[in-house]
Amino acid sequence: MANIYDVAQRADVSVATVSRYIRGQPVRPDNAEVIAQAIADLDYRPSIAARALVTKRTGVVGMVVPNIANAFYSEVFRGFHDCLLADNYQVILANSDGLPNQETQVIDSLVRLGVEGLALVPLASEAALGSEAQRSAIRRLQRIQTSGSTAVVVITECLPYQEAFDTVSVDGREAAYVATRHLLRTGREHVMPLGGHPEADAVRRRIDGYHQAMIEYGLSSYSLRHYPGGMDRESGYRLMEKVLREHPEVTAVLGVNDQVALGALMFLEDHAIQIPEQVAVMGIDDVAEARIVRPRLSTVAQPQYEIGYEAGRLLLARTGGEEEPDGPICRMLPTRLKVRESTWELPQSVPEPKPEPLSSPGRDG
Q1: CA–CA separation, 264 vs 289, rounded Å?
Q2: What angle do CA 18, 20, 24 make, to 5 degrees?
Q3: Looking at the structure, do residues 10 and 69 belong to the same domain, yes or no?
Q4: Same domain membership, residue 267 and residue 231
Q5: With contact defined as beta carbons under 8 Å apart, do 120 and 61 qualify?
Q6: Could you read off the pLDDT of 247-292 as tens digits, one per residue?
Q7: Cβ neighbours of residue 102 under 8 Å, at least 6 residues apart?
Q8: Which helix (H) or strand (E) holds 358?
Q9: 246 with 313, same domain?
Q10: Is residue 95 classed as helix, strand or coil in its secondary structure?
Q11: 151-155/336-338 β-pairing
Q12: Which of 6, 47, 73, 294 could cross-link to 65 by cystine, CB 3.0-4.6 Å?
């Protein structure tokens, strides 16, 4: 395997010149040309470990997500990866699988590898306001960040994280408010939210948005209900069955995310319940499957790719790619209502109690 000395000999330049070229520092154009050709001819691949010994930087960053199989996180990672790759960073994706011990293990492994930056999507238990799990997670991340070698950005709308770290998120309360309001505008009064554990801050905010819309339509007594559970399709399927068994009057459901809503769709399809004539289904996220299933799923779209890309930009600002900000930055990105076949309007819709919210509806193809 070729090394830096082989490249220098092939290009007939000094090792120091090759080192500057590899680190992206200025070299003479004629030297850059011959070095690039030598690297290609020798199939030379710089050693991350060797470079770190010289520069004290590894050029590696990591992202930890709760469920690598969730299409939402895949798209977030794609944006994160594209941002960092454009700045010549190598990117590692790690899966906590929803387990606190595994999350701790993968974060520790990434730090030991010398990652310059770490992006984290916290577990639901760590997003529960005031919980010991949350306090412990924040303390652990603060120790990593204050060590000076690893910058931290957290993808969450949870306030304690926003006070301690750079964060990227959307307004989940507004997203659920817009989703519920859309269902009510189509003439459906019996709307039930499905999935998620209410102690998790992101879920609580979405349920708050649902309550706000129901109260504005004079349906506050019905809005006290919420069927909690997991955040995946299996939970959505089970919860849909339970809701219709216990509340057959339900005419619409709002999944706390698209995965729960897709599970509800599956149950309704399996039991020949007409969508949306008998039960309308709404999600939040706009994962790729929402546009593929039939009927296509109405949802409030989160800018998943942009969330990841913005997380990457915040890390670059902390690792020297841009001017470093003074304090924690909170990037709140906009959402958008996507109306599809799963919530077409009923023949007679109810009047609106107030002007349109900021998010504008549109039928999406």
Answers
A1: 14
A2: 115
A3: no
A4: yes
A5: no
A6: 999 999 999 999 999 999 999 999 999 999 999 999 999 999 999 9
A7: 95, 96
A8: none
A9: no
A10: strand
A11: unpaired
A12: 73
